[in-house]
Amino acid sequence: MISRENNPDYLNSFLDYSVTILNKSPNSIKEYNYDLATFLKFIKIHFGLTKENDFSKIVISDLPIEVVQKITLDDIHAFISYLATELRSKSATRARKVSSIRIFFKYLSAKAKLIEVNPAQNLETPKLDKRTPKYLTLEDSKRLLDVASNEDNRNTERDYAITTLFLNCGMRLSELVNINIKDIQFDECKMTVIGKGNKERTIYLNKACMKAIAHYLEVRPKEGINYKSKDALFLSERRERISNRTVQYIVKRELQQAGLDTNKYSVHKLRHTAATLMYQYRKCGYPCSTRIIRTC
Question: Which CATH number do you get for residue 242?
């Protein structure tokens, strides 16, 4: 939840613009708010407007637009340097903040007309570190599914369906927890999900996914479901829509039981796994119905 009362008016106006015009997701709005609040707190220190060095104690609601009008590209570079040297922020983190700052100043100059010159117009994105994506091998994935299907708990069908969807569909965590039963077109073996940026996309389901979902629906609670969660596919023990944290716990537990490194693999890495295996087995010439894990 964003504490709008802690923001200056022009920052809240930018967040409103991002929601209504740019159609940004709630998570993107939170990231914008955090990144820009951090930047403006740095500006208060950088311009000598506060003696406080603890960012959590710096107030920015009183920072006037006149101060923002004085910000130059050098000041932004000083902030990025501070992130790298003092906060030891990774290049990906710095790149995200650069993106937030760039779109913020574009709004202030081109849309809100609150500043005459956009200091971030020539702001470059930090070069990202080259990283090799981590993903499970086909054998690792099969072992993880074996663990999920053989767990001795009352949520085995649910947890197996969750793991099966991750490994076969490459969906995001937020997409999975927000699946509603009505989003699934059983006769056409596909479902509609709301992805990043509130964009709707269609995911086609193979036999493994359809079978796992069907088995789970047979045991999914029918009574006592929280009214707001009555349409949710996956339910928690409290019979509410399952949370991100619960799904992360389920996957971590299964990874541990499968003997896989939980410091190396996570829910997000299962998304990489699905994409990688689909690509590998497409290249190998397997037909569509057999290239994904456990199709029957």
Answer: 1.10.443.10
Which of the residue ranges 47-56, 76-85, 190-199 would you say has the lowest mean pLDDT? 190-199
- Strand order from edge to edge, sheet including 184-185: 184-185, 190-194, 200-204
Tell me, yes or no, whether 292 lies in a domain.
Answer: no
Question: How many domains would you assign to the chain?
Answer: 2
pTM comes to: 0.56
Rounded CA separation 196/243 (Å): 17
Q: 255 is written with which tokens? A: 């990874």
Identify whether residues 93 and 192 lie together within a single domain. no
Reduce the DSSP state of residue 201 to 3 states and report it.
strand
Q: What is the CA 235 to chain-centroid distance, rounded?
A: 20
Give the three-state DSSP class for 204. strand
Residue 122 placed within a domain = no
Residue 145 · residue 164 · CB < 8 Å: yes
Structure tokens at 279: 């690509």
One-letter amino acid for residue 170 of the chain: G
Domain enclosing residue 59, as ranges: 4-111
Angle at 244 between CA 257 and CA 100, to 5 degrees: 125
The stretches of 107-172 forming alpha helices (DSSP H) are: 138-150, 156-169
The residue among 60, 94, 111 that closes a domain is 111
Model pLDDT for residues 204-222, shown as the tens digit of each residue: 999 989 999 999 999 999 9
Round to whole Å and give the CA distance between 262 and 255: 6
What distance, in Å, lies between the first and last C-alpha atoms of the chain?
Answer: 43
Amino acid at 171: M
